[in-house]
Structure formats: C-alpha cells, structure tokens
Amino acid sequence: MRIEKLILREIHLRLKSPFETSFGRIDKRRILLVEAFSEGISGWGEITAGEGPYYNPETVDASWIIFCQFIAPLAVGQEISAASAIASLLAPIRGHEMTKAGLECALWDVEARQKGVPLSRLLVGERDVIPCGVSIGIHDSPEALLTAIERELAAGYQRIKIKIKPGKDREYVSAVRQRFPRIQLMVDANSAYTLADLAHLKSFDEFGLTMIEQPLAWDDIYQHSRLQAELRTPICLDESIHNYDHAKAAISLRACRVINIKLGRVGGHAEAKKIEKLCRGESIPVWCGGMLETGIGRAHNIAMSSLSGFVMPGDVSASRRYWDEDIIDPEVMVGPSGTIRVPVAPGIGYEVRKSRIETLTVREQSFESRSVAVPVI
Ligand code: OSB
Ligand code: MG
Fold it and tell me: Which of 105, 129, 275, 348 has the highest Cβ tally under 10 A?
C-alpha cells in the first residue's frame, strides 16, 4: 500500500450534555480526523487527544503540530506492506500514541476497503455483536446520577461506570448500590487518589464493584500493585498502559486484574491486538475504553471489540448519547439488550458523511508525495 496523500482536519462538535471527570468538564469537542489515500481508496481515523493535557500529555493542538511536522512527512509517499507496518516507520517518534493512532487506524480502514472486507475481520475479530456499557460523568447530586443511570439501564446497557473524585465518591456509589443492588457497576477515578487514600479505597470493597479504574497516578504501575494487594475489588488500568510492555509489566507485578484498551492510548490496532493476545493468554479480561469519539473513532472501537479477548462490556455506546447528529451513516445504534452489531460492510463499515465533515471543519492540511515522474520513453 502506497500512502499517496493524507488530509488532517479539525472539526468542532458540541456534546449533547457536558461530561465531567476528576480532571475537568467538557462540553464542546475539538476533534482531529485523518483521511489517508491509496490507489483510489480513502480511509478514516480519529485522533483521540483531549483539548487539554489532563487525561494524558497529548492535546489537540500538540497533535496537530506533531502530525504536520513529524508524522505526515515520515509517512507520505511510503510504500508499506500493510497498515500494521506503519508503527515501525513511526517508531523514531517517541510517545504521541494518539496522534500516531489516528494515521494507523486510517490505514487499517484503507487496507480493509482495498481487500473488500470489514475491518473487524481484517483484525481477526470473531464477534458479530459486542456487549456495551456506559461511562457516566460526575453529577451534581446522587439523585441526578440515579436518574441518569435509570435512563441508561432502560436503554439496555449491560454495565454502568461512574466517574468519581475525592468528595464525590462514597456517597454517590452507596446511593447507586442501594437503588440498584445487582447491576454490573464500576467506578473510574482518572488518577484522583494516592496511596495515602488506602483506607478510603479499601472501603469501596463493600460495594461489590466489578472493578475500580485507574485510582492512582496516570503513569504509575508499581503503586497500583501495592494497592491491588490490599483490595478485594479488581483494579483496571487505563491511563498507565501505553503499549504491550506496560501491559506485561502490570500483569507481572499484579498491578491490575483487568485492562482497558484504548486504540489511541496504545497507538492503534496493531498494538491493541498484541495487548489483547497477551491478556487472553494470561486470563486478564479486557474491554474497550472510549474517548468521547465521533462515529469514526467509535467504528474503530467496535471493530477492535470484536476480538475474542474483549470479554467485558466496553465504553462503546450509541452515537446519540453524545451527538445530535454523527458524522457517519448510519449512526451507531445499541439494541435493547445492550449490544452493538458489528458492521459487515468493507472497512470501518459505516459511510463517512464527507459533506457534513466539510461543514464542521475549521482547519485542514493536506500532504502529498512529490513522486518523481517516470520518464516516458
Ligand atoms: O477515562 O475512560 C476514561 C472520556 C474522556 C477521557 C477519559 C475517559 C473518558 C470516558 C468516556 O470514560 C468514555 C466514552 O467515550 O464513553
Ligand atoms: Mg478511564
């Protein structure tokens, strides 16, 4: 596959309702999309960096610069054997996993379209439907949270995840457990605690949570291993796992019993597949995390979730929870039993609404290979 041309676009899209985590509140999203061209086919990827460096160090503006100055010049004009080969080409660039993943995912879409197969099958995914959960932001009161949960359970979602932070944790979780004693419930702290909170975190064991996600520092594995030894509740790592080696270290140190795989955070499908395979061999369940993606990122998440190691419901939910109108057609729909049907059309399996994307675009940059003309004799 020759990477003939790349287009990087920034679109702006308002969330239907603000989403609050321990690191901040977001209502308008700035999203970078990558379109890659090869032999008459184009494929799409989404860069999942946040607006500010509060989840991980990447940001939308930093991604724009890294993509334009370093990633596109390395990639454009190159002939690669498959999408999975792009990672080694980009290896000299350290970090910036989300920015690299935007391109990597677009190339997987191109490859699947070239071969005329759904991306899920190119990835060797086996599931036809994937189980879905929801991630619910921090609310102003336990009552407001209960109302939100009621709505999601009525929609069929199989697992509820609530965001917590110090001061907005026990009271909220306790209210949820009292009202819904038997639902699959988990919490995500986004690194809001330290080992000094050990007794407090231990007290969560009474709630019978499926897991507690990323309680400690965003770049830590060792302290999570100390914490996991003290907790009955399984720890799930999110922020700390950027690649296969991190996953291996976390499992060896018993720092977690579950791993959340996010395509952006690990640099794309190839690395995600390696982590999924490792975890499957080690009996560590994995699930697919979300980053408030548009339909393009969501479609990639669905394809990845079709791999057999993704045994737990992910944060992959319906487009309509986030957007009045998505940028793919059809939008992502969740059935009454809380599942998404993995699309069967080639590539990401949804139609990308190019004209809508153009309307939403606030800046765009193309990169073309200056191929040397072959002299005609
Ligand atoms: O930690 O999983 C997280 C959103 C933004 C940043 C970090 C996280 C999240 C979510 C939302 O939990 C998941 C979704 O897209 O529904
Ligand atoms: Mg998380």
Answer: 105
